[in-house]
Amino acid sequence: MINHINSKLTHHYISMASFKSSISLIVLISLLHFEFSSAVKGGYWTPDNGMEASDIDSTLFTHLFCAFANFDKQTNQITVPSGCDTFPQAIRGKNSAVKAILSIGGGTVPSTDFNTMASQPSSRKAFIDSSISLAISNGYDGLDLDWEQQTQPDEMNNMATLLNEWRAAINSNGQSLILTAALHYSPIVSQAVTFPAQAISDNLDWVNVMAYDFWAPGWPGPDPILARPHASLNDPTSGNPSGSSGISAWINAGVPANKLVLGVPYYGHAWKLADANNNGILAPVVATNGQDVSFDPFGNEETPTYKQIKSLIPQNTYDDTYVTNYFSSGTTWVAYDDTDSISRKVDYAKTTGLLGYFAWRIDQDQDNWALSTLASQRWGA
C-alpha cells in the first residue's frame, strides 16, 4: 500500500488534503507495524538489589521495568522509591532506544488494596492521573500494573474498569505511554474467578505472563510432597500448571498471542530431599509443618539466585520433558532455568507467535549477563 501511495505521489498531481491523508495513512500503518512486530526483550530491576541501574547492560533489552512504585491507600497517589526516579536516564546511557516502564504494586501489596482503589470512580481517577503524571515527569515510556493474588470475581470486574479508564485517560492525555500488566500464568484462577480477558486485550499493549512459582517449599500442594520444578514450560501430568498451558489458556480466553510475553525466572527454589540418592524430579522431600527450613549450601535460602547457584553448583541436569534444569547436592535439590531451558523457552515464545519474553529479576543473572545475552541472541533482532 505504501508503494502504491508513493507511486501516486510521483506520477499524479494530488491535492494537499489528499497528500496529508496519505501521510496519515503511512503513519498509521507504521504504528500498527510497531505494535505487532516489535519484540519485547524485557527485564525487571529493583532499586534495593545492590546493582546500580547504570550498570545494567541495557543493550540486551528493549524494555526495562523499575519495580516497584506504590500507592498511598488513603490518597491513591503513586510514590516512587529512590532509584526509580532516575531509572530512565540511567538505563539509556548504554542504549538510548531502550524503553523504561514504571511497575506499580508487586507481590507484597495485598490484592484488597488494589481492589479498594479500583472499586470507586474517585480513587481510580486519583490513581490513574497520578500514575500518568509521574511517568511523564520522570521520563518513563510506560506503566505496568502488578496486581497479584486475586481470588474474588469483584476484583476482576474492578480491574476491567480500571484498565478501561486508564487507557482512555492515556489516550485523552495525548501521550503515547505503553500500558502493560504482570499477571498470573493463567487467566483462570478458579472456576468462579477469571481475568477480564476482553478488557486486557482491548487496553493493554501486552501482558507479562508470570510463568513461574507454580510450586515452592511450604506452599500448599498435592500429597505426597515432591520436588517439583517451579517454572517448567511443560508438565506431563494432566492438570498441573506449566508455562505452555498458561499461555494456551490466555490465548483461548481471547488475548492474542502477540499481546503475551513469557516470563522466565532468574532464580530457583530449593527443596530438602528425603533421600539423597533419590534425587530426580518428583523425588520425595522432607517437610516440617509444611515448611522446609534447611537448604545448605545456600545458608537456608529457599530461593537462591542464578548467580548464587552457578557460583556453587556449576553442573546440573537438564530435563527436556519439563524444560527445566535441576541439581542435587546431598539432600538439597534445586530446580531453576539455565541456558538449556532459557533457550527452549525463548524458542517456544517466538515460534508460538508471542511478543517476547521478560526476566524476573535481571540482577540475579551472572556478572557476565549469561542468561540475558543468550535470550537476546536466541530471539534475534
Automatic annotation (TrEMBL):
GO terms for molecular function: chitin binding; chitinase activity. SUPFAM superfamilies: (Trans)glycosidases, Chitinase insertion domain. One of its GO terms (biological process) is carbohydrate metabolic process. The keyword Transcription regulation does not apply. InterPro entries: Chitinase_II/V-like_cat, Chitinase_insertion_sf, GH, Glyco_hydro18_cat, Glyco_hydro_18_chit_AS, Glycosyl_Hydrlase_18. Residues 39-381 form the GH18 domain. The keyword Hydrolase applies. GO terms for cellular component: extracellular region. Keywords: Glycosidase, Hydrolase. Belongs to the glycosyl hydrolase 18 family. This is Class V chitinase. It comes from Spinacia oleracea. The lineage of its organism: Eukaryota, Viridiplantae, Streptophyta, Embryophyta, Tracheophyta. The gene is LOC110774920.
